[in-house]
Design brief:
Keywords: Membrane, Transmembrane, Transmembrane helix. By secondary structure, the chain is mainly alpha-helical. The protein has one domain. It is built from 3 helices and 4 strands; from the N terminus they run H-E-E-E-H-H-E. A two-stranded antiparallel ribbon has the order 1-3. Strands 2-4 form a two-stranded antiparallel sheet. The chain is elongated and about 50 Å long.
Length: 89
């Protein structure tokens, strides 16, 4: 694995906001849209935790936010989500 291989891994085609993680499952934001989505999700989740009065409502809203966030992440990840063991194809 060279430096250029890693740099190429973090380049995305137009329309994608995330790349798969190098190891494990998940995605990393690589465009301003991906970073904005991630930051917005984080802020909304903190606001939910701080201001929702009922624990059941807090959990429900948190789950709804997480499902929406993950759905967008999966659809906007170049190459989709699967387990990765580095840059090997």
């Amino acid at each position: 694995m060279t430096k250029d291989d890693v740099i190429d891994h973090f380049r995305v085609e137009p329309g994608y906001w995330f790349v798969p993680k190098l190891f494990g499952i998940g995605a990393t934001p690589v465009t301003w849209q991906g970073w904005t989505l991630t930051l917005g999700f984080s802020i909304l989740l903190v606001l939910d935790i701080v201001f929702m009065p009922e624990p059941i409502a807090r959990v429900g809203v948190g789950i709804a936010l997480a499902v929406a966030f993950l759905t967008i992440c999966i659809r906007k990840t170049q190459g989709g989500w699967r387990w990765h063991w580095g840059l090997g194809k």
